Model the fold of this input.
Amino acid sequence: MQWTRKDLSLYIKEKEYIDTLIIPLIPFNPASDSNVTKEAFQRELNQLFTHLLEKEYRGRIIVSPEYDYITGSNETEVRRINQWVESFQSQPLSHVFLFTFDPKWKKWEQELKGQLLWIPSMNERDLHSSETKSFVKEQVSQISELITAYW
Amino acid sequence: MSDKQRVSRRQFLNYTLTGVGGFMAAGMLAPMVRFAIDPVLKPSAAGDFQSVASVDEITNEPQRFEWIVEQVDGWYESEVQKTAWVYRTEDDEIVALSPICTHLGCTVDWASQEEYPDQFYCPCHAGRYTKDGVNVPGTPPTAPLPLFDHKVEEGMLYLGQAQDR
Done:
């Protein structure tokens, strides 16, 4: 389910069936000319992945609003992410996944209260080409296998 | 001698005015009539069929087919990917089922669960449907999978709207 009025009103009614949350973690640094396009691409890719996962499992997965932070501030962000996770856990959401392409989270994985789902990004390219599509689909099916393994 | 009928001035004016008046009346009535019958002539949007697959590809085993439709949804105009599970029954009828679980909208898979090799299975809450799309009692879904309207033309399968059952 998406973070929209329509989906959330259904969520409130069907809470018992929805136990999984995905929080997209998205870094950006507007000050750096060399990285903005790369980070924007990763953001698009992240949205694409969560969209596809949500489409396949919308009856059990809810996608939270995206968590944005300035690139490199991972250490200071840990506390705020944990706050997010805790407030989501006041709902019966027992599986919280933090979905990101930012490898720096790996270092702080132990301190995060959600399950870190880091996958390597790819080079900037056209997201609509058929080659990219089949690659993304393949990756999504593997991630969904990982998520369903927790159920 | 000259018993040729003479057209009087009065008759001439009568004929001309009736003629011109007739044209004017027609000019006014035609658009009104067109407006009145317009809803009948409008092609129904629900009847939009899309070619999905060649008929020879369809087997007795349900296969997943995908196609793209243009969709206007409030603010967004987008291309939406649609999917269907299509197979041929014993009596050579083509059946096209929507893959959207009637419980909470996950995507169901054919024979993805080893225990139920001839059923549709929903990975979210273990909902099950038999091959004809009817929900198995005792599992979460409460309605059968919707069926797509379909037609076959020149060896191609066309699918339309999914209809709830």
In short: The beta strands of chain B are 50-54, 63-73, 76-88, 94-97, 109-110, 120-122, 127-129, 147-153, 156-163. Residues 1-42 of chain B form one domain. Chain B is about 20% helix and 35% strand. The interface with chain A takes residues 101, 103-107, 122-125, 140 of chain B (CB under 8 Å).
